Every structure is written in C-alpha cells, then in structure tokens.
Amino acid sequence: MQGVLHKTLIIRLSSVGDVVLSSPLVRALHARYPDCRIDFLVKAEYADLVRFNPHVAHVLQFPGGGTLGDLVRLRRTVISSRYDLIIDIHDSIRSRFLSAGAGTVTRVNKRKFARTLLVNFKLDVYDRCGGAPDVAARYLEALLPWGVPDDGGGPELFFPSEVNASVERLLGAERLPSGTMCIGVCPCARHGNKMWPAERFAESAGRLSERHGLPILLFGGGDEREMCGAIESIINRARPSARVLNLAGRLSLLETACAMDRCAVVLANDTGLMHIAEARGVPLVAVFGPTVREFGFFPRGARSAVVELSGLACRPCTHIGLPRCPLGHFRCMKEIPADRVIEGAERFLL
Questions:
Q1: Does the pLDDT value for residue 1 go beyond 80?
Q2: What mean pLDDT comes out for the span 266-280?
Q3: E runs forming strands in 161-273
Q4: Residue 306: enclosing H or E segment and its boundaries?
Q5: How confident is the model over 118-143, as a mean pLDDT?
Q6: Is 152 a member of any domain?
Q7: Cβ atoms of 313 and 121 closer than 8 Å
Q8: Helix, strand, coil percentages for the chain (3-state, nearest 5)
Q9: What is the dihedral of CA 221, 225, 227, 232, to 10 degrees?
Q10: 318 and 174 housed in the same domain
C-alpha cells in the first residue's frame, strides 16, 4: 500500500453529473485519511457542486471560456501547492496538462477500449477490461493503492441554508408552502437522442399528479424553458386540474437540488439533473435510451429505477449522446411507453 496522504487534489473539470459522482470519492478519501487536506479543481460553472462539501478544503476554478494562459497559470498553482497526490478523474488533455510535473498522479480507468468496441461494433469486452462498475466506483479504483475502499454509498450534494431560504421564498410566492410534496420532471438533456419524448413526460407526470394529488415541478436550464413550457401546456390541456410550475431557468444548480427535496419522485433522462436528484436522496425514475449500464451512469441507489428498452440491436449508439438517432427511428426512446415510467414511480408513491 502507498504511504499516508496529507494533501491531495482531485481534478474533475466537468460536467454536472461527473462532478456530482465524484462525491463518494471525496467522502471515502476523507474517511480513510481524516487529516488529509482535499482540494478540488473544477470549471467555475460547476464549482458550487463541490464548494459546500464539508470534506473539501479549497476549490480551484478554471474560468468559463478559459484560455491557454489560464491553464498555464492554474498549472503553476497546482505545482507550487506540492500535493502528495493528484487524483485525475477527468483524464483529458487539459487535466493531464494541469497535473504534468506535479508529482504523484493517479488516474481513472475509463475503459475507453471496451466502450469503443461496444458503441461501434456492439462487442462487450468489459469483463476483460476490469468489469463495468458504475462511474463512482471507477473513480475510487484510482485510490485502491492507498487503501481507500468504496463504502457503497451514493453521491452527495450539499448547499448552505440560504439556498433553502431562497427556494422557500420562490415556491411560497407560487403558492407551494413548505411541506408540499411534488412530482419532479427533468425532461431535457444536452443531447437530443437522450431525451424521452416530451409528450411521454407530460403523460406520465400528469397521470401521477392526478392520481396522487401532487403538483408538478419542471426542472431545466434557461435554454430549456421553452421545452418545459411545451410540457406544461400539454399537461394543462389534458388535465386542467393538475398544478404545474415551470422552474426551468429560474433556479441555480443548488437551488434545483434544494427544490428536488420537495419531490416525492423525480422523472428524468440520463442527464446531470438525474444525478443531482440521486445525490439528494430523492426517489428517481430514469429513462435511458442510447446509453447502457456498462458506461457506468445508471443510478446506484435503492431508491431509483431505470427504464430502458432492452434487446435493441442498435444500442448503444453513443456513450455521451448525439443530436438525433443515427438510424432515424429513435426506437430506444419512442418504444418506451408512459406506463413503464408510471409503474416505476408508483413503487415510491404507494
């Protein structure tokens, strides 16, 4: 086993889900070396996802739209900090540059070869490439030489009390007083072929709302407000009695996490907000289309359910997503009916 750690740096520049999934690594590292200082290097836009973690001492930020000069300056900071160990769980050209010459570095095994064969040739060789653990477990593999075990727990996400106060004010102004439970919906994704059809989300949320008398909260970024608005309109036309609140673009990431605490269940695509819901311990039903379990992004908690179309020969067609179905039929999403998502949600609502 390697020596005792006193000062470490974790590098994970992006994105939402990947940064959230680093939290089990932070927790396990702190549990094994409680006196070790843990710093975290991340893009500025995702810094809040780690800033309030009680085990993180300091957050180094790569600025939005950062230049090569910013990378060079940040690398100097990393080198001058003299870390015992740098844990590169991003393993990109930029993360390798940032850690070059900085001492001992350990990196995540992304199973790139196995992933490439599965996507391009539908050949599953994961068993010969270290297996297919979830991403949080893959991050922790990098610390096996230092005796840091996986505690098996899920991701975590922390925020200060003022975030809760802000969300309470917003929801209170929308006539959703404290204690009101809701159905959360995260219908968008960065890539088009990872999005279950909007009308299916509307049907699922509308029927669940009507059956259980729960308001619906729609979550997303500012550029997703229009799509969430379309889902709101579909629900309002089909079920006028359902209460729908479109929060897309109105909340920060931490405020979104806080508002999810109000949800009896969250319905989501394979996206960063799905991981935020899991990190807050909210019951979750996740719809996976072009991506598969072997890539490691299925939620690991018992309070989650995954809905997918198994046995489809063209899956997976991508590991991160594409603008549209490359074959044009989009069967992996279109052939998942609302009934399956509703059935998954009902186990958490009964």
A1: no
A2: 97
A3: 182-186, 216-218, 244-246, 263-269
A4: strand 304-307
A5: 97
A6: no
A7: no
A8: 45, 15, 45
A9: 120
A10: yes
**Segment 32-57 mean pLDDT:** 98
Name the nearest CA neighbour of 29 among 75, 89, 76, 69: 89
Please tell me the total count of domains within the chain. 2
The CA R_g of the chain, rounded to the nearest whole Å, is: 21
Rounded to whole angstroms, the Cα distance separating 35 from 55 reads 10
Is residue 178 over pLDDT 80? yes
Give the domain range for residue 265: 161-349
Task: Identify whether the C-beta of residue 2 lies closer than 8 Å to the C-beta of residue 81.
Answer: no
List the structure tokens of 253. 């990431």
Question: Residue 7: which H helix or E strand, with range?
Answer: strand 7-11
Q: Which residue has the tokens 């603008």?
A: 323
pLDDT confidence of residue 327: 97
Q: What are 46's two structure tokens?
A: 């995702």
Q: How many residues does the chain have?
A: 350
* Residue 350, pLDDT score: 80
Q: 311 phi and psi, to 5 degrees?
A: 80, 10
- Residue 219 near residue 201 (C-beta atoms within 8 A): no
Which of 87, 119, 146 corresponds to the end of one domain? 146
Structure confidence at residue 302 (pLDDT): 86
Tokens standing for 348?
């958490």
pLDDT of residue 315 exceeding 80, the answer is yes
Query: Do 97 and 167 have their domain in common?
Result: no
For 119, the enclosing helix (H) or strand (E) is helix 112-121
The Cα 284–Cα 277 span in angstroms is 7
User: If we measure between CA atoms, which residue out of 45, 145, 112 comes closest to residue 296?
Assistant: 112
SS3 144: helix
d(CA 112, CA 82): 30
State how far the Cα of 53 lies from the Cα of 48, in Å rounded to an integer.
9
Amino acid at site 189: A
